[in-house]
Amino acid sequence: MELLQTFFNWGVFVDALPMMLRGLKVTVMLGVVSIVLGLVGGLLLAMLRLYAYAPIRWLSRAFIDVLRSIPLLVLLVLIYYALPFVGIRLSSFAAAVAALSLVSSAYSAEIFRSGIEAIPRGQFEAAASQGMSFFNTMRDVILPQAMRIVMPPMTSNCINVMKDTALASVVAMPDLLKQATQAQALSANPTPLVGAAVMYLLLLLPFVHLVGWIERRNGSGGKKA
Amino acid sequence: MSSVIEIEHMSKFYGAFQALDDINLTVGQGEVVVIIGPSGSGKSTLIRCINMLEQYHQGDIRVGDQRVETGDKLASIRCEVGMVFQNFNLYPHLSVLTNIALAPIRVRGMARRDANKRAHLLLEKVGMAGHAQKYPSQLSGGQQQRVAIARTMAMEPRVILFDEPTSALDPEMVGEVLDVMQNLARSGVTMVVVTHEMGFARKVADRVVFMENGRIIEQNNPHDFFTAPQEPRTHAFLQAVLHH
Predict the structure, then answer these.
(1) Whole-angstrom Cα distance, residue A148 to residue A23?
(2) pLDDT tens, A164-189?
(3) pTM attached to this predicted model
(4) ipTM rounded to 2 decimals
(5) Please, which residues 36-95 of chain B have a Cβ atom closer than 8 Å to chain A?
(6) How far is B19 from chain A (nearest CA, A)?
């Protein structure tokens, strides 16, 4: 009974719920915006990394390598606490989105690149032999095929971004984790933390299954190269 | 006879290795030129230079009155030079119909309805009517190659290059593809065909070109080429492929 009272205290949970739901909303906003920006940025980076003129190619490669090597928390602290010294002052939401989407775009870029490089050369040649432009070749021929290949690793990446939003609590972002820790402090009981864990699970599990379903649906068309 | 393709003193290198050596070849309007020769003789490389899937390093290739070179005009030249590949290279994520209609819509700016209509007509022509909504993986190799031929024809190119179109096929499917190609040849399509199918060369070609070690050794009309080859190397090659 001691255990239930401590970790699964219904009264504490109900009291903390409104606060935590506000936090959940912030977490979802933060995650969705960062994921979308990360995907767009990642695709752009992958294109530069693969097809731009040499100096830009090297730059994007360096950018990707640095962002993949730096811990997200360090980047977040730098953006939020160091940039004001050079006159760039971001809100905690903007700072968190910037850090999350920058790192995510670097990972996404490498995932997109691997997907594009997995497309047989004959696909590029067929499109080229028909006079298709680079843009059309990418949009109609290469990327649709690459997207199917990168679906599993890209899912993991997006789930990671959603989970990493919890780091934003460090820069005073009232996200789910921050609200839960605050509720825990107020009630002197860890139940809100358990509640937060369950909420993260409820948030991400359907996502995992949704993508699995999309993959199966694509696979069942039997469209292999 | 106006020429569609003119190749003059063209050479290509892979590093120090010379893949093509002083190639001179003209293909006239409506002509069917079949290129044969041993593996590694540069046949495929030669036709892949014509639409610049491979870079060439010396000499000139002209399609119509345009020199084939990198730049803004390359895409428009490629519209005039269709290519059928050994491995078909159909777009696996698109239906047969979309495979054929895609480039006319995107490159020629055709309305989707017109492009689809043309695609259906072409499918009929290659004996694939009724397969429009299938995906490439649902088709046999021979069927895929016939769709690939229809896809190439959809751009109404001035010439079609065939890069060993039957080499990746199971033996029982070679015939259906060669039949389609023969019909094309009869309808006056200009064709350059790299192949090992001697029967096709003999029956359909207006001219047979024999290549070895990156050079054109001999070219002649099929009758004289097969019955009275001039060069000893041609003779040896024909001995090897015809009498086994």
Answers:
(1) 33
(2) 999 988 887 888 888 888 888 888 88
(3) 0.88
(4) 0.93
(5) 51, 53, 75-79, 81-83, 85, 87, 89-94
(6) 20
